[in-house]
Design a protein that fits this description.
The protein has helices at 13-24, 61-68, 84-88, 94-109, 137-149, 151-167, 210-222, 224-230, and strands at residues 4-8, 28-33, 49-53, 73-76, 115-120, 174-181, 183-185, 192-195, 207-209, 236-239. The protein is of the alpha/beta class. It has an 8-stranded mixed β-sheet, sandwiched between helices. Strands 7-9 form a two-stranded parallel sheet. It binds NADP nicotinamide-adenine-dinucleotide phosphate (NAP).
């Protein structure tokens, strides 16, 4: 089945990998980016890629509705740029604001079947249902302080809270998955696992190659069995050392 996917954050470290992997899978991609010059090499002019250069948070609702119309899925790999200005400067609500706007556009377009919304975030984001049993008091306290002091940390949590609480389950326009990788590292697609729960402490983190995180998000967008397994959940993605296991979804 041919698919069209809207990608935001496609110029980022993980988003670039998502873009290349989607095109390699034969998917048609619409990418909203601030600057096309930051797209990965080799994709410019691709017949299945449409690039929209725009400030996502400044787009008019009608424009956003048009760009996401007829898309089967939306993948967000947005993240605050890791610089003093990127972390502490505006927009403080990059991820939440984009998620809200995109979800509103999807809803107003009135899709015939729910659109898959895939949000890339982090293991530092709590499951809003409070089901992250592994977090001890020290870790909870640290995360609480970080959310007070560091805007991107608060922003990522709010975006996940929005999908869980406001979009919720059984929404007629949107189904969602919040993807929580551990520390991002370089590397190729390799063995990885998706877990329902946290599997490591923030004080002793696991790692996830950006290629693996991209691979999992592409699977979610294109593979209905994998989507059905994770819809409405917040999987934690970690690499599996080569000697220990094989890819598992
Ligand atoms: N670093 C880690 O170890 C780690 C671990 C787990 C999860 N995460 C989370 O994973 C997500 C993606 O991380 P990443 O390292 O792959 O991302 P990244 O390389 O920092 O890329 C961020 C993307 O967001 C875009 N962006 C930033 N500010 C924007 C704005 N004001 N308006 C529109 N677009 C904007 C960037 O566009 P430009 O190219 O135009 O700047 C880029 O496409 C983030 O939410 C991050 O918190 C990170």
């Amino acid at each position: 089945m041919s698919r069209t996917i809207l990608l935001v954050g496609g110029t980022g470290r993980t988003g670039r990998r998502v873009l290349v992997q989607l095109l390699d899978r034969g998917v048609t991609v619409r990418a909203i980016v601030r600057s096309a010059s930051r797209l990965p090499p080799g994709v410019s002019g691709h017949p299945r890629l449409r690039v929209v250069e725009a400030e996502l948070l400044a787009m008019r609702p009608a424009e956003l509705i048009e760009h996401q119309r007829d898309c089967d899925a939306v993948i967000s790999c947005l993240g605050h740029v890791l610089s003093l200005k990127g972390v502490f400067g505006p927009p403080h609500d990059l991820v939440t604001g984009a998620t809200r706007r995109l979800c509103r556009a999807i809803t107003e377009a009135g899709p015939t079947a729910p659109v898959r919304f895939i949000l890339m975030t982090s293991v530092s984001v709590n499951h809003p249902a409070g089901t992250d049993a592994l977090r001890g008091p020290l870790e909870k306290g640290l995360l609480w302080a970080l959310r007070g002091l560091v805007p991107p940390s608060r922003d990522n949590q709010r975006a996940a809270d929005f999908l869980f609480r406001e979009v919720g389950a059984g929404n007629r326009a949107i189904d969602w998955v919040v993807v929580r990788p551990d520390s991002l590292i370089e590397g190729e697609v390799s063995a990885y696992a998706a877990h329902d729960q946290l599997v490591a402490s923030l004080f002793k983190p696991d790692s996830s190659t950006m290629a693996n995180v991209a691979h999992f998000m592409c699977d979610l967008a294109t593979d209905s069995a994998i989507w059905d397994r994770w819809v409405g959940r917040m999987p934690v993605i970690v690499d599996v050392p080569a000697a220990v296991g094989s890819k598992k979804n």
